[in-house]
Amino acid sequence: VILRLAIIGFGNVGQEFARMLLLKREWLLRSKGLDVEVLAIATKTKGSLLSRTALDLEKALGHLKASGTFEGLPEYCDLTPLKIINHCDADMMIELTTLNVETGQPAIDHIKAALDVGMDVVTANKGPVALAFDELRDRARARSVRFRFEGTVMDGTPIFNLVERTLPGCRVIGLEGILNSTSNFVIGEMAKGLSMDEAIRGAQARGIAEEDPSLDIDGWDAAAKITALANVLMDANLTPRDVEREGVRAVGSQDIKDAAEKGKKIKLIAMAARSGDRIRLTVKPQTVGPDSVFWSVDGTSSALRIQTDLMGDLTIVESGPATTQTAYAVFSDMLLTVEAIRAGTLC
Amino acid sequence: VILRLAIIGFGNVGQEFARMLLLKREWLLRSKGLDVEVLAIATKTKGSLLSRTALDLEKALGHLKASGTFEGLPEYCDLTPLKIINHCDADMMIELTTLNVETGQPAIDHIKAALDVGMDVVTANKGPVALAFDELRDRARARSVRFRFEGTVMDGTPIFNLVERTLPGCRVIGLEGILNSTSNFVIGEMAKGLSMDEAIRGAQARGIAEEDPSLDIDGWDAAAKITALANVLMDANLTPRDVEREGVRAVGSQDIKDAAEKGKKIKLIAMAARSGDRIRLTVKPQTVGPDSVFWSVDGTSSALRIQTDLMGDLTIVESGPATTQTAYAVFSDMLLTVEAIRAGTLC
User: B-chain residues within 8 Å CB-CB of A158?
Assistant: First the structure.
């Protein structure tokens, strides 16, 4: 079977995903009977590629690395992503543009366009799931296509798929986690004696934090993630603006020292809890002790505790992730979507 | 759709599973279109029940609680479990007899008999998976039925289902975990000042440890679990006798104090690692520091770290489990089996 992809957004994750497709090409053919072809790649600043037949991914990656643009390749074009989605013959759209936490755009429009032309959609962008989940889910169902988003929270660590595929019949009662790597890394560095500015610059130098770190430091990234989780796993139908949000910006070195003197650490904890008919979402710095499952979740690691009715509490921890893990989220969603197509189911 | 069950072994887990079936009866009908009927329950010492139509589970549980036996109920019989498996009309056999770590019997024979008459099989007994996995898996495949065993390790926490259903394309490179609750609880109590004997009696009083605690204290339970994990997730084809095994029996209060003085705890760690073409399995007490993901896994909690090629390292922690969680393992395996039957797949 041939599976034809359009990749919209081609930064680190997109490029790593393309390398994974090359690396696993033989395995996909042999074990899954799957011949994955990429027909289009759209970017905001590096031009786009569009073809009727499979792009040569190795060549495209090499050209991009050498020249910083797709210009010069025969499949180069300067169509907008929306035009590419509407004009390419892909079966599946992989949405990897960057987060806009206020509007979720342009990702939401890309996803709507792809669903409307009958494509299955996989995204690693948390905006659409945090801001428009119910609408996109219903739209996908109405078109009989699939919408998957494992990479939006904790990279490729299975969270959505874990609940959907391994906890049948369980109701999620509450969620609690360390979801923003930058904040966790910065507080950890401050505990070693650095100032917040120094810690942020260190995170930027390692490629953990963006040039504008405010999305992380002010708690917006964690807010978007806990909203995405609550929308999908607890039917919350909320947006990041509904989160009681306090980032780590106001955490001082003295606070960290005071906590340490009491044998505690400060962690940025995101929570979702049922409160009557409502779901209450919070993101705020909290102290945790050595008996907490979050105690050892340091550096860029992250963790999520899931409270359920039938299965009690379970926690999943991702240790020291890299871009590979986010690319794997897309890869696994692609495979699970193909499985669903073959089984004739919608998720 | 009617799903007819035979339950072989009816201790705490079996009874809790029966209560879960009663509790979720409406949900099963409404959400899954599934009418679950129990046609047979076999026990070693309490007699058995066998019927052509659905047993009244509430009545059976009540009678058992009141009189300690099934004798007196109209469906009472004294056939052996094997005869019951061969004579009942069930679609699925739920195997819940107790572990024999040397032979895996009588569970292995029960499972073979059920597979041979075309039943799907769900078990929470780790013996068959630790001692005869390849044979049982192949037998199930040859009969086009399913064999599931999520409850054998870490109760209902998804481990086997996690790897199978949410990590497609990932190769498991290594496993490391705290898998035996009794050992973990006993060492924790010793750290509070109790002797090992006192700690074991405390575990027995709480229903954590068996009357004969040697399976736990000598590392056999952990050995059976790491073997089951390695057989399924790493194609090890080994038995618990192949494990380099050292339980917590030789751990003294002084060892725990010495570790504490260095800021460490002692934990019984089970590991599976690739070593050339072989899989090496070990169970032994090890010291862990506060930076370890196992540091906060105290009391009866357990944890497993899974190292993979594409998704890096992830750890799943089960906090303070109860019988409900093991019953849920059986419940979830039952549902996933029904899903597989409907999709026409074998797992």
Answer: 162, 166-167
Name B313's bridge partners: A319, B307
Residue B76: phi, psi to the nearest 5? -60, 140
Question: Cα(B304)–Cα(B180) distance, rounded to whole angstroms?
Answer: 11
Neighbours of B58 (CB within 10 A): 11
Q: Please give the sequence-ordered ranges of beta strands (E in DSSP) within B54-164, or none if there are none.
A: 76-77, 92-95, 120-123, 147-148
CB contact under 8 A, A166 and B156: no
Which phi-psi region, left, alpha or beta, contains residue B146 (left: φ > 0; alpha: ψ -120 to 50)?
A: beta
In angstroms, what separates the C-alpha of B77 from chain A's closest C-alpha?
33
Separation CA B184–CA B300 (nearest Å): 6
> In sequence order, what are the residues at sequence separation of 6 or more whose Cβ sits closer than 8 angstroms to the Cβ of residue A102?
none
Q: How far is B272 from chain A (nearest CA, A)?
A: 18
- Give the C-alpha separation, A243 to B192, whole Å: 41
Alpha-carbon distances, residue A92 vs A132, A135, A341, B317 (angstroms) = 20, 19, 11, 35
Mean pLDDT per block of 10 residues along chain B (347 residues) reads 97 96 96 97 96 97 97 96 96 96 96 98 97 97 97 95 95 97 96 96 90 93 98 97 97 96 97 94 97 95 96 94 90 95 82
Q: Contact B5/B91 with Cβ under 8 angstroms?
A: yes
How close A310 comes to chain B (CA, Å)? 6
Q: Do A332 and B167 touch (CB under 8 A)?
A: yes
Amino acid at A275: S
What is the least distance, in Å, from the CA of A259 to any CA of chain B?
16
Catalytic residue, from A126, A225, A265, A267: name it: A225
Q: In angstroms, rounded to a whole number, what is the distance separating the alpha carbons of residues B70 and B145?
A: 31
- The tens digit of pLDDT for each residue in B232-271 reads 999 999 999 999 999 999 999 999 999 999 999 999 999 9
C-alpha count within 13 angstroms, C-beta hemisphere, residue A272? 33
* Token pair for B295: 């540091």
Point out the residues of B that are catalytic: 225
Nearest residue, CB atoms, B332 vs list A168, A296, A345: A168
Q: Which residue of B has its CA nearest to A338?
A: B168
Q: In this structure, are residues B19 and B61 in contact, taking their beta carbons and an 8 Å threshold?
A: yes
Other CB atoms within a 10 A radius of the CB of residue B144 amount to 10
| Distance from C-alpha of B227 to C-alpha of B27, rounded to nearest angstrom | 36
CA A267 to CA A304: how far, in whole Å? 13
* A122, A296, A305: best to mutate for the B interface, most B CBs within 10 A: A296
C-alpha B227/C-alpha B223 separation (Å) is: 6
**Which DSSP letter does residue B118 get?**
T
Q: Using alpha carbons, select from B287, B234, B226, B232 the residue that is nearest to residue B101.
A: B226
Option in B168, B325, B335 nearest A332 (CB): B168
Global pTM value? 0.95
Q: Compute the CA torsion angle B249, B253, B259, B262 (nearest 10 deg).
A: 180
Integer Rg of chain A from CA: 21
Beta carbons within 8 Å of A83's beta carbon, 6+ residues apart = none
DSSP state of B28: H
| B316/A321 CB distance under 8 A | no
Determine whether A225 is an active site residue: yes
Cβ distance of A290 and B312 shorter than 8 Å: no
Mutation pick from A154, A160, A163, A166 vs chain B, by most beta carbons of B within 10 Å, is A166
Q: Please, which pLDDT band fits residue A180 given cuts at 50, 70 and 90?
A: very high
Cβ contacts below 8 Å, chain A against chain B, sum to 137
Token pair for A22: 């090359």
- For range A136-142, the mean pLDDT: 97
